[in-house]
From TrEMBL, chains A, B:
HTH cro/C1-type domain mapped to chain residues: 12-66
Alphabetized PANTHER family for the sequence: HTH-TYPE TRANSCRIPTIONAL REGULATOR, METHYLPHOSPHONATE SYNTHASE
One matching Pfam family: HTH_31
Keyword DNA-binding: yes
Source taxon at top rank: Bacteria
Family annotation (CDD domains): HTH_XRE
Gene3D superfamilies referenced in this protein's UniProt entry, alphabetically: lambda repressor-like DNA-binding domains
UniProt protein name: Helix-turn-helix domain-containing protein
Cellular component, GO, one term: cytosol
Length: 109, 109
């Protein structure tokens, strides 16, 4: 099961990397230590709500958008987990491939 | 500005009340003290990711849905704040009424 800090952390990292910004740059803007920001991105430390707001500010990112992306990631992960659970139960490579195909179809909607 | 713990807390409370469950009931299921759960619902304490997962379990609520609702609330709040900001700048009751009407139109889409 994915925890909130893990899904938020990986989304923060994705936004920072998409902007081609360094941990040092964002940590300075958000007034958080580089090490702590790195731990947050890796989902190892919880960010307080104030700190999260500050990191979002530094990334010029709306908290609403971050939460929306996190929600989408969690649904996607639950979908994959559910599918792979069924495939594992079936214990059949061909079944797994079929599920892989279904997944692409659904995800490309 | 709304903080994450405030918007999550009020959504947790709304879900609990919608299910007509008491703080005592949910706190026992989620294995958190009644007082702490109450503080979380009021946005006064941060819930760790593990505790949040536990409260969601107790409410039979997907974390993805909670985050999606929180995202929607934040957008709604930002929209209202923006509108009232413009109306206040205009300092005119009639302008405020027009904005109120726009708001209902947009919200009813």
């Amino acid at each position: 099961m994915l925890l909130l800090r893990e899904v938020i952390g990986s989304n923060l990292r994705a936004h920072r990397e998409h902007q081609k910004r360094s941990l040092r740059d964002v940590s300075a803007s958000a007034r958080v230590s580089l090490g702590y920001l790195s731990e947050i991105e890796r989902g190892r430390k919880e960010a307080s709500s104030e700190l999260l707001a500050s990191i979002c500010d530094a990334l010029e990112l709306e908290l609403a958008d971050l939460l929306n992306d996190a929600s989408t990631d969690l649904r996607h992960r639950a979908f994959i987990d559910e599918r792979s659970g069924v495939a594992e139960t079936a214990g059949d490579k061909e079944v797994r491939l079929v599920f892989g195909q279904d997944e692409r179809e659904v995800l490309s909607v």
